[in-house]
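Run log, item B.
One chain of 71 residues. Sequence copied directly from the ordering sheet:
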Amino acid sequence: LFEKNMKWHDKLKAYCYAKGWSFDEVAEMTGFSPITISVWFRGERRPSDKSKIVLSEKLGIDLSIFYEEFE
């Protein structure tokens, strides 16, 4: 699913797209606005640590995707 050297936002986007989830669906699942999800998908802003935990728990994605600079 993830290619080598993918940025965190590309990994998040690829994961959600692979699941067939739209911005609206991800927003509904996580409690964040569709605009916030869109901003994160484009990599314009990083989620806070608290938001990363919510995304990880609600979407079932590993927290490590947010730390690509340490891979």
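Observations after the first pass:
- The mean pLDDT is 89.
- The helical segments are 8-19, 23-30, 34-41, 49-59.
Flagged for discussion on Thursday.
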